[in-house]
Write a structure and sequence with these properties.
Layout (H helix, E strand, L loop, with lengths): L2 H11 L6 E9 L5 E9 L5 H18 L6 E6 L10 H6 L4 E6 L4 E9 L3 E10 L2 E10 L3 E6 L5
Amino acid sequence: MDITARLRAIAEANLKDDSYFIVDVISKGVTGRTKHLILLDGDNGVNIDDCAALSRKISSEIEEEDLIDHAFVLEVSSPGLDHPLASLRQFTKNVGRKLKIRLTDGTMLEGKLDDASEEALEVQKEVKEKNKTTTEKVSIPFDLIEKANVIVSFN
């Protein structure tokens, strides 16, 4: 098992409860300067204390298992708005929010996420015509989605 997979397994085994989940584990860098980023999310969000507690548990297991024998940086963080949504659970959590979606054919669309199932997203797509914007409900199969991000709204 590679280090990234092992870190994911350790992180998942140390989640506070079932409302938390690991979005991604990213290992970057060269031996001696590797950064391991673990992205933690929760059905009700996460805070800095959640990230710190998980980081301490993972660090402890890394030491106990002597898993990494060189200098490294371990960071546990929430995905943030710049990180694309990756799992059904993340999409479900963001129902009602506005998304920017890039499809595999390069098409871009924006709209409000109405529903998410294992097969597709239901989105109120914005259609801009001359001087007005209307919406049209569309179903987007997951296999056609290349990237989807939440759009920040300040209203």
